[in-house]
Amino acid sequence: MALGRSHDFINMIALPICLYYIPKDFYLPFALGYTFGTFFLSPDLDLPHSKPSKRWKGLRLIWRPYQLFSKHRGLSHIPLIGSLIRMSYLFFILTFLYFVLLGLSSRYAPHIEKLLLLFDPFEVLSSIAQREETFYFALGVILSELFHIVLDLLSTLLKRFKIF
Question: Contact, 22 vs 136, CB < 8 A?
């Protein structure tokens, strides 16, 4: 298995190569998704002490349930599926926190509750999902995951044959 430093380095080296194939109008959303995928939504989030987990600092607690139910190199390391699971999990956690905040505000801060009710997380997700920029952001996350997995496979293969 490659070290986190290797994943970050190889992924960032590959970014300009990927950008060559992306329409110029979508460089920014792709690069943001790719970078976010490399540093924060890595397949190694299933390990509590991995670099991507530590990068979440105090918020890394939100990934604890994910880590408890996800075996390392299990579903998290299947291209496309792993990215979709992590992005869905993050949306689920954010939505759950929204509803917790909504419940607490209804009891302790009714004036904030009215403000929170103006926000519908499902409507926001629907609106975001329909944008072309979202496709390129997600593509960036998925490609960063793909490079991560390929590097893991190559590293394992080289170690198995004692080349590395």
Answer: yes
